Amino acid sequence: MRGKVNEISISYKEPSAIENAPSIKSSYDAAELLFENWDIDTINLYESFKVLLLNNSNKVKGVYELSRGSITGTLVDMRILFATVLKSLSVGIILAHNHPSGKLQASEADIRLTKKIQKAAKLLDISVLDHLIIAPNGNYFSFADNHII
Q1: Can you name the residues that pair with 63 across neighbouring β-strands?
Q2: Cα 110 off chain centre by
Q3: How far, in Å, CA of 146 to CA of 42, rounded?
Q4: Predicted structure pTM score
Q5: Mind listing the domains of the chain with CATH numbers?
Q6: Consecutive 10-residue runs of the chain (149 residues): their mean pLDDT?
Q7: What are all long-range contacts of 4-10, with beta carbons under 8 Å and residues at least 24 apart?
Q8: How are beta strands 127-134 and 140-142 bridged, if at all?
């Protein structure tokens, strides 16, 4: 007996104004853009994890909020992360999450997660350019600048 199955459709429409999109040249550029796009009312309340999606010229295709968590952590579903990256045809990503406490130090869990994402991204020819920890006051910590990535 044959059953009906769902038909899957995947689409992505790139805006025509990508040439006017900001270009990321440094961790400062990424942090500034991320901070401007973070909800200022909640940045000090709970952790969120976002991904900055980039094209081959490091122009920003978009920012995607992957998860919202608690005061001390948030979960990252690798399948949703890479589904988003692949669907947007991004070739580079910058990971970011906030620390509501303002503490700008990468935890062992932060480092393990970043390495796990890097390993998966490598299989898909996607570059993980940085992972930023954003503080409510606008300061940030860059994994790349601190040679963790």
Answers
A1: 52
A2: 13
A3: 27
A4: 0.85
A5: 23-142 (3.40.140.10)
A6: 66 63 92 88 84 94 84 82 93 94 90 95 96 91 94
A7: 10/87
A8: antiparallel
